[in-house]
Write a structure and sequence with these properties.
A hairpin with a 7-residue loop joins strand 8 and strand 9. By secondary structure, this protein is an alpha+beta fold. The relative contact order is 0.07. Helix 2 runs antiparallel to helix 3 and helix 8 packs across helix 9. Among the domains are: 35 residues, no CATH class; 105 residues, LysM domain (Membrane-bound Lytic Murein Transglycosylase D, Chain A); 136 residues, Glucose Permease (Domain IIA). 32% of the residues lie in helices and 16% in strands. It is elongated. The strands form 4 sheets. Strands 5, 6, 8, 9, 10, 12, 14 and 15 form an 8-stranded antiparallel β-sheet that branches. Strands 7-13-11 form a 3-stranded antiparallel β-sheet, with no helix packed on it. Strands 1-2 form a two-stranded antiparallel ribbon. It contains 11 helices and 15 strands.
Length: 419
């Protein structure tokens, strides 16, 4: 107790409080003696004295008297030393000492802060590595930057979504495989051959110049990719390619219906024009088991055979010669109406094999006439339900429409080497 009193006295003297160590001891000792006397009496009476009567529990009156005597002595000492006036500065002093001790203790780091990297050499190396691989980190970023500290702002890339959208982000990349042709690649992605060609025109001066490993851009739908010029607007592009401005805006996700200089847009359903002449487009070089390509001159496949289109569409300029794909006998010539193919020629090859040539602008054969492979039977046109000049070419394993359905129609590419 003397040691504790001395320590507190030193603190009080440092704080210039008006109390001495001797005075503090003179207050503590009488109070301590009184409490000890109270506790001692309680214990002695509980244990019992030499006489038999003293062994009985003390009465409530005797306990009250003893307790009152002890606390009266404490009260006398409190009055003597004006203890209540002194307790206030002592209490303040103890609070200040406790606060100083607590503030000097090491701060415990939270679990979330423990994971933060410090500016040590390994952390700096990691920061440099992430900066080299992350294009969003500029040269102003330093090794001392805390990756966990920032203003919390996120770049708003949707402030002008129309400008930010570019058709290049919609393109797929395809690596040319050995034996691939442009027509086969287009068929694989269910696109027109012209769509693939015009998307890759810069690296395909000749449609037949494909090489294995070459990377081709594949648009998501038929159309032509256009880079916006200084005078181009959404309306001018729509008028140029004969499509609606709304279709262009929808395909390219342009909610503000505007385009900007240098932006690439996909014009849906548009064409860049005829492809350069392909060696596989001539009737004489496309023979397969006696079959020849049914359109002479420059042509290309604009639509392949699929579940909704039981034919091969071969696009060519109006008036381009149409020839018999194989030797046979003409069984039908004439106009079958808008939904029946317009002007048509049907040829039978053997017992159950037939070919039909639709949308012709002109025919120059008659029913019953025998023709040879490669012999001209008409000219390319767009009669009937046709959006442009092309040959709608069909192959049937039975009389065309004999069953009233397309069940007997087969893929012409099974017979043509140029597909």
């Amino acid at each position: 107790m003397h040691r504790a009193a001395a320590a507190v006295s030193r603190v009080l003297s440092h704080l210039a409080l008006p109390i001495s160590a001797a005075g503090l001891r003179s207050f503590i000792r009488p109070a301590s003696d009184a409490v000890s006397e109270l506790v001692g009496r309680g214990r002695s009476r509980a244990a019992g004295g030499p006489s038999g009567a003293s062994r009985l529990p003390a009465s409530s009156a005797s306990r009250s008297f003893a307790t009152g005597q002890a606390f009266r002595r404490i009260a006398d000492n409190l009055d003597r030393y004006d203890i209540f006036d002194r307790l206030v500065p002592v209490g303040v002093c103890l609070l200040l000492v406790a606060a100083a001790v607590v503030s000097s203790l090491p701060v415990a780091r939270s679990a979330s802060a423990a994971g933060r990297p410090s500016a040590t050499a390994p952390a700096l190396g990691a920061a440099e590595a992430s900066a080299s691989s992350d294009p969003t980190i500029g040269p102003e970023a330093t090794a001392t930057d805390d990756p966990y500290v920032g203003d919390g702002s996120i770049p708003n890339t949707m402030q002008n979504p129309g400008v930010a959208t570019d058709a290049k982000s919609m393109l797929l990349s395809y690596a040319v495989q050995p034996g691939d042709t442009l027509n086969q690649i287009a068929h694989k992605f269910e696109l027109a051959t012209t769509t693939i060609y015009w998307a890759n025109k810069a690296q395909l001066p000749n449609p037949d110049s494909l090489r294995p490993g070459q990377q081709l851009l594949i648009p998501p739908m038929d159309g032509v990719l256009v880079k916006v010029g200084a005078k181009d607007t959404l309306d001018s592009l729509a008028a140029k390619y004969k499509v609606s401005a709304q279709d262009i805006a929808d395909v390219n996700n342009l909610p503000d219906a505007s385009v900007v200089l240098g932006q690439t847009v996909l014009i849906p359903g548009a064409s860049g024009g005829p492809m350069p002449a392909s060696k596989s487009g001539s009737g004489s070089s496309s023979r397969s088991g006696g079959w020849v390509w049914p359109v002479g001159g420059s042509s290309y496949i604009s639509q392949y055979f699929w579940s909704g289109h039981h034919a091969l569409d071969i696009a060519a300029n109006e008036g381009t010669p149409v020839v018999a794909a194989a030797a046979g006998t003409v069984v039908l010539v004439g106009n079958r109406g808008y939904s029946g193919g317009g002007n048509v020629v049907w040829i039978q090859h053997g017992t159950k094999l037939y070919t039909t040539y639709n949308h012709l602008s002109y025919w120059n054969v008659r029913v019953g006439q025998k023709v040879s492979a490669g012999q001209r039977v008409g000219l390319v046109g767009h009669t009937g339900d046709a959006t442009g000049p092309h040959l709608h070419f069909e192959v049937w394993l039975g009389y065309p429409w004999g069953l009233g359905t397309t069940a007997d129609a087969v893929n012409p590419c099974n017979y043509l080497a140029a597909c």
